[in-house]
Amino acid sequence: MLRKEVNDLLTQTDKGTPMGELxxxxxxxxxxxxxxxxxxxxxxxVELLGEKMIAFRDxxxxxxxxxxxxxxxxxxxxxxxxxxxxxxxxYHGWKYDHTGQCVxxxxxxxxxxYCQSVKLQNYPLIKVGDVLWTHxxxxxxxxxxxxxEFATVAAEQTVTTKRIQECNWLQALEGGIDSSHVSWLxxxxxxxxxxxxxxxxxxxxxxxxxxxxxxxPSAGGLYVGARRNAEDGKHxxxxxxxxxxxxxxxxxxxxxxxxxxxxxxxxxxxxxxWSYDYHPNRPLTGDERQACLxxxxxxxxxxxxTFRPVQNKENDYLIDRxxxxxxxxxxxxxxxxxQDASLQESMxxxxxxxxxxxxxxxxxxxxxxxxxxxxxxxxxxxGIMPPGRVPEHMKVxxxxxxxxxxxxxxxxxxxxxxxxEGKLRATV
Length: 428
What we know:
This protein is an alpha+beta fold. It has helices at 4-11, 18-23, 149-152, 169-176, 182-185, 201-207, 286-293, 321-326, 336-346, 363-382, 391-394, 409-412; strands at residues 27-32, 44-48, 51-57, 63-67, 81-83, 86-88, 95-96, 102-104, 122-123, 126-128, 131-135, 158-165, 212-217, 221-229, 235-243, 247-250, 258-265, 271-278, 399-403. It has two domains: 27-141, Rieske Iron-sulfur Protein, CATH 2.102.10; 149-412, Naphthalene 1,2-dioxygenase Alpha Subunit, Chain A, domain 1 (Alpha-Beta Complex). The chain is built from twelve helices and 19 strands. The two termini are 35 Å apart.
């Protein structure tokens, strides 16, 4: 169990909170680049870390991320006109450029210079891969641009999607580093989903329902190792990468694409679940790419024109009790992504961790909480910058390997857990 004050510290991410300030030290995915497909296209609402903003792309292709509301009468700029290198409020015509600077107040004489005294809060918005990223912290402490492997490989090797998840970011993240549930919740899906099926490793997951967890610190976060029995007395290891604060990478299966998530707070009750699939050594096939877009693997099928899953709270995630009885799905919910999300959302918006009872397979979760708490309080109290902000911490891979029982994965597989162009993955 966790003390209430610690649970509050870990789950609250508004500006000025310890965890909110921790998140503001990183480049975070803000929107998909495809949401702003061309110059002067319609603006997009964005909410991150409790801040409501608007994103737009101006006449020269520059991206802007501004607080959502006009400085005049606080009208939402989502209704604004994107035109002539700015966005104009339709209420009284106040206009702002991509930096948030007011450049026109029609009711004021141009010679007064009034508009130059008005500037909206703005944050940088940069394109890396198929994602637009933002840094919402102090510009003086801005880290290097993101260099995650999924975002820096060639476009034909990667695909990214996102969905709204109706719970706090932390309980979503904790699901991303919990490998013990795979043998239960996802068991019927392993040999059905096109992005998982056919891997030899699936047999290890299905036969050994009691994994042993060994968690080791990494430069940017943690290695969360789940050990299951393999043939000839050997051990099958699945090593999940967690990089602070909210990046997780799932170990690959056979030659299927690698996949993982960012769990980004919208506010304290909702988060964005970003899901990516990529292969470091080859282009994705047309079938693999389409499977991701269709909601297979770790992705979800969303309501057209939105990022809300088709399966959601209002329709009980389309649970099929008869399929559950037949063993076609363990929980009655279909799809890896929604099997996870449905149970995480069932805990409530913010789970009461004072009432939980952790066991040995939850060791990775406990260590993740401890490292987050320590990083947030050291930043608040001592100004110590947290790990996970520099490229060398981002260039990681998750692996799946079979090892002799006397080998420690953190030592034997150190090189395999680092991303390097042209290097083959360690996978089973």
